[in-house]
Amino acid sequence: MRMIRAVAIMLTLTVTITLVGCVSYVDLSDRAIVQAIGIDYLPDKKVYRISMQYFNQSSEGGQNQIDKTQDNVLKSVGEGESIFAAAKNASMLTGKDLLLSENRLIIIGKELRKYKLGDTLEFFVGNYHSHPQAYVAAAEDTAEELLDIRFKEGSTSSQRLANLIHNASVESRNKSTYPYQVMTMLCTSTESAFLPLLTTATLKTDVTIPKETGGGKGNKGGEEQSEDGEKTIILDGGVVFKGGKELCRVDDDGAMAIFFMNDMPSEYSFTVPLGQNAKPSVMLIGVTRSIKATEYNGKVKFDVSFSASGKIGSKGGMKEDEKKAAEKVAEPAERELKRKIESSVIPIAEKGCDVFGLENTLRRCCNRFYRENKDRVGEIIAESEIEVNVNIDIFSQGIGGA
């Protein structure tokens, strides 16, 4: 018995030592800690171009805060006939092993969106080293252009862009998307998906030109002028996909509507136009959503209902007291939110695109009809009727000043 136990212990030690010896150890300082990845397609060369922002470990600012003495983030670019080959070439140029588990952001360039989005994201979904909750976003032009922009202070560019998407999602203004979420959306019959859109913008700086200098170029001295300032990046609506390829862009209202149709908004603020220069702002909380489908003679109707509590954040020129202001704003607020959602959802649905979860509703409410027509879901959605109803209970507490 003792002999058997001794042999078992020896075998265990041998296997353990062997396995440990097979694992190659790489020090963290020898790794390129990737923070953002931009993917473009170059049609003239027929190659993929990957831009990788990675953390400069010799800087003092850390991964999230800018070090003014030197760049926190370095960039490496690689090209290849596949995304894997391009990533490999970008990795070789760093002279380090890639660490993808800290990546915060994946940006898809404009040219690449002409091709199947799922083929691009397979690299990240199938790579067990990749961060599962890296945000996926679209670039107005090239992804590399966005990664070239450097900020002078505050958070690093990759952290700032990730925060931009996160904050818009928290405020129910734009849907944040992870690779596996996008791939799940692409698995629907219409292969529809949505990505938030990042675009460049130039900040305008108001300056007063001294009277004694004049100003030149026809500007009078002492007047306030606007000058181009720092180049930055903003969130500007989003991109809708059908058949896995880009279908169209949507504005901020469209991005909000897609969020409302898919997620549960925790809060949302918007302005209610009342006329006579009165534009109070309303904050919604406790938003609930219900989507039902009915079918009659082959035609489908989707009834979408939203209910929420709300309060007036600012009276925006209203002269009424708190109670009367709340009563006056409720119905116009319902109409305005209904308009925002209907004007965004219906035109997209009429194109047979489903970024709203309508196929799941059809499967749930009209299962037999769905099973008999699952090969023409896009056509059914395009021909369907969509009605949106909004109920907002405005209460007077917490009204701000005019």
Automatic annotation (TrEMBL):
GO BP annotation list: spore germination
Subcellular localization, as worded in the UniProt entry: Membrane
Pfam families (alphabetical): Spore_GerAC, Spore_GerAC_N
Keyword Membrane (UniProt): yes
Composition-biased stretches (Basic and acidic residues): 220-229
Gene3D superfamilies in the record: Nutrient germinant receptor protein C, domain 3
Disordered: region residues: 209-229
Signal sequence bounds: none
Keywords: Germination, Lipoprotein, Membrane, Palmitate, Signal
Domain Spore germination GerAC-like C-terminal: residue ranges: 237-397
Gene Ontology CC: membrane
Principal subcellular localisation of the protein: membrane
Membrane topology: Lipid-anchor
Limits of the Spore germination protein N-terminal domain: 25-199
Record InterPro entries: GerAC_N (IPR057336), Spore_GerAC-like (IPR008844), Spore_GerAC-like_C (IPR046953), Spore_GerAC_C_sf (IPR038501)
Domain of life: Bacteria
Keyword Metal-binding part of the UniProt annotation: no
Family: Belongs to the GerABKC lipoprotein family.
Protein name, UniProt field: Germination protein, Ger(X)C family
